[in-house]
């Protein structure tokens, strides 16, 4: 039995993790969970999974739940950053699934590592903002970081039994996102609703906008750099609009190993939870390549997708540059989602934030948190009064 603490339980990955647990009740149990503001779903989870620790974002929701479930004396309720960290390090959990969105996941991740928890990591922003801290701490503590992001799970699976020295390059596939059939000219005036219409995956709002701007692939390149310890010139991106090949590894002898599957995040979530074993896929659609028909591939167009250029550049510069990239992107996407800026302004804002920053090498946690906050404030100052 694996005892799971789940950060971001009410989100897209969180809900699909709950599905995996439902499919294998003899294998998995959720003992602690955190949510943001969706307390309606938290109520359902409490009845269904009977977790021992529940954390929500606000003090108000904490009081609501505490009084509603006052008869359940064996459930502890918490809130805010403290609650998030308490869930991450919960002592009865054997593995943490980190499915929270954004760099708010960094501190709980570092604490979970210190508490010697293996981590199934979906929360890519944590690796982008402070990959060196997370990887170094995980190595020191001897804990495993198991990728959940579909591309990184694919690479991880392709690398099983292989030697790192034989890797020629990683090829991360990209669907192209909601606007892949539009020119840059046609991106002027696109709506939030259109941006949220991903062709292949049903995901949370922020990552869906990232897919449309190609920043998702930029974050994934940086995530791959840290997870697989490879330089940026060995990490390529290939457009593949069907999202059937989730990514590939090319070896020195020219062999390429790819992982394929229908676009369903339950597969990488479950693999991260069962690694190095596998479990049957209960009630899932299997891949039928004859039905899939022709698969398409094309080179990445960096002029069409400047966010990917920004990510490679920031990644190569290293230090706090990726913290700025991530924080500026989080703030700019939030501004787009709330209707304050246009889709194309996301890129402009990120570029401005990168240009005004003087990189700090090997930043510690405090520096990263400071740069993250200052970058958000900088973007907010650019979009205020809109
Ligand atoms: N969705 C997907 O298919 C994939 C996602 N990922 C990555 O996984 C992570 C999660 O993505 P996704 O599930 O789509 O995101 P969602 O937006 O769907 O879910 C985010 C979760 O985090 C919670 N949350 C948000 N802000 C806070 C906060 N300040 N404090 C506490 N909890 C908070 C939300 O709570 P609530 O809803 O209750 O407010 C929700 O549970 C991201 O890093 C994403 O890049 C990677 C690959 C695929
Ligand atoms: C499911 C998943 O892992 C997402 O990160 C996915 O990769 C988004 O698709 P694109 O970014 O390729 O559009
Ligand atoms: Mn992905």
TrEMBL record:
Question: Pfam families annotated for this entry?
Answer: DXP_redisom_C (PF08436), DXP_reductoisom (PF02670), DXPR_C (PF13288)
Q: Which reaction does it catalyse?
A: 2-C-methyl-D-erythritol 4-phosphate + NADP(+) = 1-deoxy-D-xylulose 5-phosphate + NADPH + H(+)
EC numbers listed for it are: 1.1.1.267
Keyword Magnesium found:
yes
Q: Which UniProt keywords apply?
A: Isoprene biosynthesis, Magnesium, Manganese, Metal-binding, NADP, Oxidoreductase
Q: Which InterPro entries does the record cross-reference, listed alphabetically?
A: DXP_reductoisomerase (IPR003821), DXP_reductoisomerase_C (IPR013644), DXP_reductoisomerase_N (IPR013512), DXPR_C (IPR026877), DXPR_C_sf (IPR036169), NAD(P)-bd_dom_sf (IPR036291)
Q: Which residues bind Mn(2+)?
A: 149, 151, 220
Q: Name one GO biological process term.
A: isopentenyl diphosphate biosynthetic process, methylerythritol 4-phosphate pathway involved in terpenoid biosynthetic process
This entry's Gene Ontology molecular function terms read: 1-deoxy-D-xylulose-5-phosphate reductoisomerase activity; manganese ion binding; NADPH binding
> Which positions bind 1-deoxy-D-xylulose 5-phosphate?
124, 150-151, 175, 198, 211, 216-217, 220
Return the broad EC class. Answer: oxidoreductase
Q: Where is the 1-deoxy-D-xylulose 5-phosphate reductoisomerase N-terminal domain?
A: 4-131
* Domain 1-deoxy-D-xylulose 5-phosphate reductoisomerase C-terminal, chain residue ranges per copy: 145-228
- Positions binding NADPH in this chain are 10-13, 36-38, 123, 125, 204
Write out the pathway annotation from the protein's UniProt entry. Answer: Isoprenoid biosynthesis; isopentenyl diphosphate biosynthesis via DXP pathway; isopentenyl diphosphate from 1-deoxy-D-xylulose 5-phosphate: step 1/6
State its cofactor.
Mg(2+); Mn(2+)
Where is the DXP reductoisomerase C-terminal domain positioned along the sequence? 260-378
The entry assigns this protein to a family as follows: Belongs to the DXR family.
Known role: Catalyzes the NADPH-dependent rearrangement and reduction of 1-deoxy-D-xylulose-5-phosphate (DXP) to 2-C-methyl-D-erythritol 4-phosphate (MEP).
Which NCBIfam families has this protein been placed in?
Answer: Dxr, PRK12464.1
The protein's name is 1-deoxy-D-xylulose 5-phosphate reductoisomerase
This chain's source organism reads Peribacillus butanolivorans
């Amino acid at each position: 039995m694996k005892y799971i603490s789940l950060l971001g339980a009410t989100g897209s990955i969180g809900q699909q993790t709950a599905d995996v647990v439902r499919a294998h009740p003899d294998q998995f149990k959720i003992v602690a969970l955190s949510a943001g503001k969706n307390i309606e779903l938290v109520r359902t989870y409490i009845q269904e999974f009977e977790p021992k620790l529940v954390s929500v974002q606000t003090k108000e929701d904490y009081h609501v739940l505490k009084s509603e479930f006052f008869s359940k004396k064996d459930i502890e309720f918490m809130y805010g950053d403290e609650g998030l960290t308490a869930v991450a390090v919960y002592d009865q959990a054997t593995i943490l699934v980190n499915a929270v969105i954004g760099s708010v996941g960094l501190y709980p991740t570092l604490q979970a590592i210190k508490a010697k928890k293996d981590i199934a990591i979906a929360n890519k922003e944590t690796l982008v903002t402070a990959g060196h801290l997370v990887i170094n701490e995980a190595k020191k503590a001897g804990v495993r970081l198991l990728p959940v992001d579909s591309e990184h799970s694919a690479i991880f699976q392709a690398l099983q039994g292989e030697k790192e020295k034989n890797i020629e390059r990683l090829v991360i596939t990209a669907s192209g996102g909601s606007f892949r059939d539009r020119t840059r000219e046609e991106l002027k005036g696109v709506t939030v609703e259109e941006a949220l219409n991903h062709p292949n995956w049903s995901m949370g709002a922020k990552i869906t906008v990232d897919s449309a701007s190609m920043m998702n692939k930029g974050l994934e390149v940086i995530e791959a750099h840290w997870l697989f310890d490879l330089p940026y010139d060995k990490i390529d991106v290939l457009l593949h609009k069907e999202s059937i090949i989730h990514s590939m590894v090319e070896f020195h002898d020219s062999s390429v190993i790819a992982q394929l599957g229908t676009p369903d995040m339950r597969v990488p979530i479950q693999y991260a939870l069962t690694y190095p074993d596998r479990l049957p896929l209960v009630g899932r659609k299997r891949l039928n390549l004859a039905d899939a028909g022709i698969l398409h591939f094309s080179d990445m167009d960096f002029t069409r997708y400047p966010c990917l250029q920004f990510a490679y550049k920031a990644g190569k510069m290293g230090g706090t540059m990726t913290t700025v990239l991530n924080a500026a992107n989080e703030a700019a996407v939030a501004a787009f989602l709330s209707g304050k800026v246009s889709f194309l302004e996301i890129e402009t804002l990120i570029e401005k934030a990168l240009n005004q920053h003087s990189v700090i090498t090997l930043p510690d946690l405090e520096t990263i948190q400071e740069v993250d906050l200052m970058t958000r404030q900088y973007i907010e100052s650019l979009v205020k009064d809109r």
